[in-house]
Amino acid sequence: MFSNNVNRLEAHYQSVCVNQMADIPILNKALEVEAVGFVDWGHSKDQSEVEVGVLITPWFMNIVLLPKDSMRQEVRVGKTVNILFPDGEYSFLTQVDADFGIYLTCSLFSPMFDFKTQRDARETAAAAMAQLLQTEAFKQIKKDKAEAQQLIKDQEVLNKASSRRAFFKGGGNAC
């Protein structure tokens, strides 16, 4: 389903979880390592430069940018890089791992105790990706919510007008 790069990231953090984080108290034991919603992002010469998605672990949830090739030399580890998405500009921290290489992360949640199930975390990650990329589905959901709120407001106005008419005609019980 995902690219080799995303699968490597997921496997890397699964190994970290099992081998380095197992007894750390900030782990949410209800969660597991999972990559969510990774897609190609950024283009140069008809080729995407990175993959972007959300990485869930029992101790954090981050937006991750994975370079398809090696990260450019001007990127320094620990440096903040601002990346523009349809939703706006996000600050990413440059990370390096001896086993995995250089990649960028933007923290969404840490620690992860607010999530009761993996499904809750996965749905939150998917919603974050939809908002980040302003997908058509996300735009439709926002439009539907706005329309539903307008219907509620319209109904409230109609109810008030109807109540006033009834009151003035003597149809309402004032006492």
UniProtKB/TrEMBL annotation:
Q: Which organism is it from?
A: Bathymodiolus thermophilus thioautotrophic gill symbiont
Top-rank lineage group of the source organism: Bacteria
Family matches, as Pfam families: NiFe-hyd_HybE
**What's the protein name?**
(NiFe) hydrogenase assembly chaperone
**Family to which this protein belongs:** Belongs to the HupJ family.
